[in-house]
Amino acid sequence: MTKPDLTFPSKAAYPVGKQFFPKQRQRAVRFILFLGVISLFADMTYEAARGINGPYLDILGASATVVGVFSGLGELIGYGLRLFSGYISDRSHRYWLMMYLGYGINLISVPLLAWVGHWQWAVVLILAERAGKAIRNPTRDAMLSYAASATGLGWGFGLHELMDQLGATIGPLLMSFVLWWKAGDYHEAYLILFIPTGIALLVLLMAHLTFPHPHELEVKRVNLDARQRFAPGFALYTLAAMCLAAGYADFPLMAYHFKQHQLLADAWIPVLYAMAMLTEGLTSLWLGRLFDRWGITVLIGITFATLLFPALVFLLPMPWILLGVFCWGLGMGAQNSVLKAAVAQLIPQQKRATAFGLFDTLFGIAWFAGSGLMGYLYDRSIALLVGFSMVLQIATILLWVFYLRKYVWNRSQS
């Protein structure tokens, strides 16, 4: 008996979902929509805060190095803890408990920023928010993969990402309005985020009651070997993703740059972030469909398209900054939809939360190291920061091309 093909392109292993029974697909889409609504209001909460955290830390007296280091540390926690939370989910099968715990910590930490008076306490809450996301994300992505198997993995993850980014767009716009209305009152801006927090937790309860066993949504299409933890080339794929993470500047550092050089008024910085989030959401569904057809080649094309964003954002004035933020949002859309769809395709169901956790941990370590270094470079030379970011993105492209040559193109010719 021949082994199943676990490599790209994804179309071979996970064909587009309309081949399956309408009722099965409808239930899967309903579940994806439930998760999407939860993410919409969750992102409205914490992405609203991420759009103003950089300037807020500046007001509280933090330096660029502090912003860069703790932004990276937040991502390290937000990704690093997923290895353990994903493993615990797979071992205990208490998927909904992990969702309640993760979303609770993730969301409630954000509006509490309204009452901090020192940057050290603000950093603690920012890190707590990232920790909560780490607890629930591997479980949520595993649940999402079960349903997306009936719709096409790229399409399913893309639809979820679209709804996710609608919230990430509305939240920063809400912050911009509050800062304008209240003349820069950050206390009021953070306080209003209790509203989407409550809605997200309520919809989470409704999803649990409607779909108590989401693993039953998965369509069995490929007999993946349950004893095999990684597909061929998974380590190389992950290494390329780590290079991408290390060289991708985080928005708090970009926002810090805008305020330091007085490129934008405070109220307009979250508007720029909202534009990036809208770009991320609107392109994710399209990118997901392209992934279902062409596999990892889509990631190479998007990385080429976003290669110049650091120079546009950090070295040039308006309107080049707008183009740079658009490119940044396009790249984030690929990272949060296509990158995850590939992982879901390569791992059997019973180990998928663990796999998402491991991948995210390594991704987060790279993000932390890169963010900390870019914050350090910013204090010394913005040109060095830009060069560092672009070199690592080029390295990402080369590694993915090498992956395709070794595991896809050569196999298709044999």
The end-to-end distance, rounded to whole angstroms, is 18 Å
In CATH terms, the superfamily of the largest domain is MFS general substrate transporter like domains
Tertiary shape: globular
Strand percentage, roughly? under 5%
User: Helix and strand string, N-terminal first?
Assistant: HHHHHHHHHHHHHHHH
In the CATH scheme, the class of the largest domain would be Mainly Alpha
- Helical content band: over 70%
Oligomer: single chain
Please tally the β strands and state the result: 0
By secondary-structure content and strand pairing, the structural class works out as: mainly alpha
Task: Note the total helix count.
Answer: 16
Uncertain spans: 1-20, 221-226
Radius of gyration: 20 Å
Mean pLDDT level: 81
Tally of discrete structural domains: 2
Per the CATH scheme, the topology name of the largest domain is Growth Hormone, Chain: A
Task: Describe the protein's architecture and organization.
By secondary structure, this protein is an all-alpha fold. It folds into two domains: 22-219, Growth Hormone, Chain: A (Up-down Bundle), CATH 1.20.1250.20; 229-413, Growth Hormone, Chain: A (Up-down Bundle). Helices cover 76% and strands 0% of the residues. The chain contains 16 helices and no strands. It has helices spanning 22-59, 64-80, 82-92, 95-108, 119-148, 153-181, 186-191, 194-210, 234-246, 251-260, 269-294, 297-305, 309-315, 320-346, 352-380, 382-413. The longest helix has 38 residues, at 22-59. Mean pLDDT is 81; it is low at 1-20 and 221-226.
